[in-house]
Amino acid sequence: LCNDETPMVRRAAAQNLGKIAKVTSAQFIVNELLGMFTTLTADEQDSVRLLVVEDCVVLGKLLAKEDCAAKIVPIVLKFASDKSWRVRYAVAQQIYEMCEVVGVDVAVNGLFQAYVDLLGDTEGEVRISAAGKISDFCALAGAQYSIENILPKVNELANDQSQHVRSSLAYVVLGLAPTMGKEATVEKLLPVFFTLLKDEF
Fold first, then answer.
1. Exposed/middle/buried for 111, CB within 10 Å: 0-12, 13-18, 19+?
2. Rg (CA), the chain
3. Contact assessment for residue 84 and residue 49, using Cβ atoms and an 8 Å cutoff
4. Local structure of residue 193 (DSSP, 8 states)
5. What is the spatial distance between Cα 86 and Cα 69, in angstroms, rounded to a whole number?
6. Minimal CB count within 10 Å: which of 4, 34, 41, 183?
7. C-alpha span between 190 and 30 (Å, rounded)
């Protein structure tokens, strides 16, 4: 079914791959299911690929961390720059959980940067999704990484042309304060807050 000629069938297969993984053995996942998963990640239909994004997290939780880092993380990174904005949107929804699964030591080698790139995505819907997870992501990444890499994007998002992006940021921006510490909050975060506070929307 994962190789069926009809896209609708492959979509259904992708939608259920994670569910099947949960009730099967680790050996079957490694020997059989990962091959099917890999096939679906390269599907020509973006409607299939975006469903596989959720499978990444499910499989990641079931595999050993080493296997997850070697076999799942590269797929997530590929999806993060997929030509379809719908796939990138799905990644923006799932990437924080993926980082939690693999841990900071693995996430810092690619996943963190992929998230930063999603914050600056060309598609507004992707930026909205990514912006809504900023406080959680910064808490995971830590103050130094967040100040150096994520706060510049926060400043850009505060002046984003899309009011929906700005709104998504406004809901979570104060949640950054505990991670940033007092000095960075006063110097870098409060100006963003006041920019959003004056937003006509």
1. buried
2. 18
3. yes
4. H
5. 24
6. 183
7. 48
At residue 12, what is the residue type?
Answer: A
Which residue type does 44 have?
E
Element (H, E) at 33: none
pTM of the predicted structure, to 2 decimals: 0.88
Q: How far apart are the first and last CA of the chain?
A: 48
Residues 168, 128 contacting (CB under 8 angstroms) = yes
Q: How far is it, in rounded angstroms, from Cα 139 to Cα 125? A: 23
CA distance 95 to 164: 21
Dihedral (CA of 52, 59, 116, 156) sign: positive
Tokens found for residue 68: 């997850």
CA distances to 18, 41, 180 from 98, rounded to whole Å, are: 14, 16, 23
| Chain CA centroid to CA 70, Å | 18
CB 168 within 8 A of CB 132: yes
10 Å Cβ neighbour count for 98?
25
Tens-level pLDDT at each residue, the chain (201 residues): 989 999 999 999 999 999 999 999 888 998 899 999 999 999 999 999 999 998 999 999 999 888 899 999 999 999 999 999 999 999 999 999 999 999 999 999 899 999 999 999 999 999 999 999 999 999 999 989 988 999 899 889 988 899 999 888 888 887 888 887 777 766 777 777 767 777 755
